[in-house]
Amino acid sequence: MVIVKVGMKMRAEWSPAQYLKFEDHRTRPAADLLSRVPGADILSAVDIGCGPGNSTELLTTRFPEAHIVGMDSSGNMIEAARQRLPAAEFETGDIETWDPRTPQQLLFANAVLQWVPNHQRLFPRLMSFVADGGSLAVQMPDNLDEPTHVSMRQAASDARWQERLALADSERAAIETAATYYEILKPHCRRVDIWRTTYFHPLQGLEGIVEWFKSTGLLPYLSRLDRHEKESYLAVYRGLLAEHYAEAPDGTVLLPFPRLFIVATK
Ligand SMILES: C[S@@+](CC[C@H](N)C(=O)[O-])C[C@H]1O[C@@H](n2cnc3c(N)ncnc32)[C@H](O)[C@@H]1O
Q1: Check: CATH 3.40.50.150 for 3-265?
Q2: Ligand 1 pocket by C-beta < 6 Å: which residues?
Q3: Which of 78, 104, 192, 196 is packed most tightly, with the most Cβ within 10 A?
Q4: Which phi and psi angles does 228 have, rounded to 5°?
């Protein structure tokens, strides 16, 4: 795994293959989010944080007439997205500085804005890029207090790597409450639809949980460790997970995964 320096910030390099090991599970919230986006006649949309194009593909299927652009800060993800959808348009960019130049009828952000700080400023800024009648549609994991993530932070406090992992927690900011998003967005919208869903993903043992988060939540930790330390960190992490998640007789572990959804329409 490679660490990429972006200004003062360290960002781990995303792996499309690891991410897509759980493609069905990961794309389901994107489909649920899209099902609540109003309007059949959308002609312009950007999938921000498009990843390997799984969420972009949903947009191209629902709006075949639209000009759809996928954007992402990861070159690996953009490359995978281009291979998946050769007819669609993709670009690299950073949401913190990105500007679509023309107002869009849909900004779709599935499982990405949790990686971008300062939502008090970010959400009104994204809304300013939405055309009248259009929508900003957002889904973010709401799992920082789940044992999966508490255990990541606990494992990071091990003296062997505590100093190097001190900044890992801050790569993903805590999201705001539903009431705060409503307050931020309402002055800019005629309708703000917010809901929260907990999915229960049947995974193959505790190792399934580790594999799931290797491509997302564990990235800020693992990318700061060498190969041997990674194995040691994951051994500590597995031990902590075992205190919270029970394997069924067939080896399955049910992973509860809460997510917050927002569709804000101008
Ligand atoms: C969990 S994936 C989501 C992929 C896809 N949208 C989906 O629905 O499965 C998050 C993506 O956000 C991208 N990302 C993270 N921070 C970003 C930023 N500041 N600007 C643009 N993309 C970013 C990552 O490179 C990664 O591809």
Answers
A1: yes
A2: 14, 26, 30, 49-51, 54-55, 72-74, 77, 94-96, 110-112, 115-116, 216
A3: 104
A4: -70, -40
